[in-house]
Amino acid sequence: MAKQSDRRPPVAVGHVYLDATDVGAAARWLETVGLRPIFEAEDFAVLELRGGTHLVVSQAKRRPRKGTEAPFDLMVDDVAATRRAFAAEGFKPSKIRKGRIHDTFDVEGPDGYMFAVTSSHAGRRPV
Question: Is 24 helix (H, G, I), strand (E, B) or coil?
């Protein structure tokens, strides 16, 4: 159980997974978009997201169809600033779509996966 003074939710997602045909290239792309490198080998990499969730990148046998939706999205505090930063990196982010809960843009990532990048809805709550 979480301490009374700790206002974060008591449970987190431990690991999420992404298969990639080039683990090193996928890890570099993920570092560029803001994940923290933890470990990398030729066929396996671990990167960390906010909150301590680990993204495990494993060697894929084949590339997914271009445009396949990534198995998870990326959430950021300032979606407009993130979109500008991605464009400055040479990525080609879509326009921002205004939503009822999230504002979102898409960007092509490793192996042609399409990542949705969404605005955070945590507000001032600790996560």
Answer: helix
